Structure formats: C-alpha cells, structure tokens
Amino acid sequence: MGSVVSLKKNTDFARLYKRGKMCVTPTLxxxxxxxxxxxxxxxxxxxKVGCAxxxxxxxxxxxxxxxxxxLCGGLLPEGAHADMVIVARAAAPDADYERxxxxxxxxxxxxxxxxxxxx
Length: 119
Description:
This protein has one domain: Ribosomal Protein S5, domain 2 (2-Layer Sandwich), CATH 3.30.230. Helices cover 40% and strands 24% of the residues. It has helices at 10-19, 52-71, 97-114, and strands spanning 5-6, 21-24, 28-35, 40-45, 81-88. Helix 2 (52-71) crosses helix 3 (97-114). It is globular. It starts with a strand and ends in a 5-residue tail after the last helix.
C-alpha cells in the first residue's frame, strides 16, 4: 500500500475549507481541491466526536479507507491529484466499517465530480 502524504499547515486546511468542493454524509465531511503534484490528506476530528481515544480511532479508520480507496482503489481519475480534508463527525467512531466505507465512497465521488480535472 502507498503511504499517505499529510497536510500539515493551517493555511492548507484553510484554503481547502474556503475554496474546496464539499460533500457531507452522516459520518464525515470531505473537502477536495485539485492539486498538480501529489495526493495529500488532512484529517480532523473535533471534540464532539469524543475523547482523544475516539477521535484517534475515527481518524485511523478514515486514513485506512483513504489508503484503500483513493491511493490503491482509484477513486480519482487516472493521473489526477487532489488535496483532501476529511472531517470526522460525531457518528464516525460508532459506525461500523462498512457504513464508513459507503459514506467515504459517496462523499469522495461527489466531491471529485464537482472538481473539473480537465483544466
């Protein structure tokens, strides 16, 4: 499996929140924006998700889904790169893996559809 390149700077997160395409599901929110270099991922989970253990569990599961479906699964068009921020919602830690997987696929497909990769 490929390694995940992380978004670390607050300016990158702010840029995605402001200019990125957004899709909401019951367990997560995805912000996506076209990138010319490499796929990058940012994960957040607020205090409403729960204590640190629950927030970290939610982020760990979302990171695994990103590796499985975006880096290896080809949810993005061939040769296209995108920055993504995935925000875990309060239902994320309690949702079973299949529910998270369905919501992740739905959200990423909708966000990618809104991005114009041809330009």
